[in-house]
Amino acid sequence: MPDRNDAPTLASAELDELRESDRILRALLDNAPVLISTKDLQGTVTMANRHFEIIDGYDAASFVGSNIFQLFPRDIAEPLWRNDRRAALEKRAIHEEEQVYHRDKTLHTYATVKFPLMDADGVVYATCAVSADITDARTARIDSVTDELTSLHNRRYYNVRFIEEQKRARRDQRTLTLLLADVDRFKEYNDTYGHPQGDKVLQAVADCMRQTFHRSGDLCFRIGGDEFACLFSSSGEEESLALAEQLRACMAGRQIPHTGNQPMQHVSLSLGLAFITPEVGLSQEEIYRLADQALYRAKHGGRNTVSR
Ligand SMILES: Nc1nc2c(ncn2[C@@H]2O[C@H](COP(=O)(O)OP(=O)(O)OP(=O)(O)O)[C@@H](O)[C@H]2O)c(=O)[nH]1
């Protein structure tokens, strides 16, 4: 039997130090405006800080000790669990966006870092998650690049994306198309039917654009009052022209009355295209000018037309 006195004892100064760091850690966990938790490898919560009070369904008495599949609906729990598993299996910190419902039933997006907790032998026994609410920042970011009336991207985003898409197209040796679309005799439409009706026309144009350019990578913008743009890649000029024609036909097909737009008598679009091939080193302004000149030809070729 080992003598009880042989057991390692902590000097009282060390004990005081441990108590102090424990107090600091608890104060941190209680006051940090982020979610901090640990889970075992079966997904059972083993620690959760006070900020979890904000989460829908949180119950201080049962949260710790419950499995995340008991705590959250399956569509919420599954991605959370997938990220925990990745951190444990890959033995590294992973950064992901995660979503959970708050007590007020609103869905919030969190930037989460998940990392494994390992014992002295390097064996993973749990994961730790630290999550900061980025819902407001995300909404602000989306708002700053979105046109309020149509929910298309705005001109600011067009300027940013044009450069990126041009570089990507050059790298991937693809042809990128810049399409400009403009509502025919829109000033007259506003004058005849009123500004609120005019707004509805702009929203109808946006609908047709979304309908026509729905492939991943297609980008649609409202870049001015009644001026719209699309950036998209295609197999070549003929396919781009066919897509532009689809957009023209979509708008004409809506048959929105516009008596001042002769001879159509309904709302129509004029469209101009410019092609950005990898070998042509034109600037953003030059490409825009080419598309704008094509749009001008469409306007002067009778409107309700696609030009290149
Ligand atoms: N309803 C509405 N009208 C807008 C908005 N922004 C700009 N406009 C109007 O859009 C009209 C654009 O007209 P113009 O650029 O002169 O050209 P147009 O009458 O369409 O003539 P063409 O382009 O030659 O066919 C102007 O009367 C603007 O006041 C908006 O957000 N809502």
Descriptive account of the structure:
The strands form two sheets. This protein has a five-stranded antiparallel beta sheet, with helices on both faces. A five-stranded mixed beta sheet has the order 7-8-6-9-10, sandwiched between helices. It has nine helices and ten strands. It has 308 residues and is α+β, with helices and mostly antiparallel strands. It folds into two domains: 15-139, Beta-Lactamase (2-Layer Sandwich); 145-307, Alpha-Beta Plaits (2-Layer Sandwich), CATH 3.30.70.270. It has helices at 12-31, 68-71, 74-90, 135-144, 155-172, 186-193, 195-212, 237-253, 284-300; strands at 35-40, 45-48, 94-101, 107-118, 124-133, 175-183, 219-222, 227-234, 269-276, 306-307. It binds guanosine-5'-triphosphate. The site of guanosine-5'-triphosphate (GTP) has 16 residues, from strand 6, helix 6 and helix 7. GO terms for molecular function: diguanylate cyclase activity. It catalyses: 2 GTP = 3',3'-c-di-GMP + 2 diphosphate. Pfam families: GGDEF (PF00990), PAS_4 (PF08448). Residues 174-308 form the GGDEF domain.
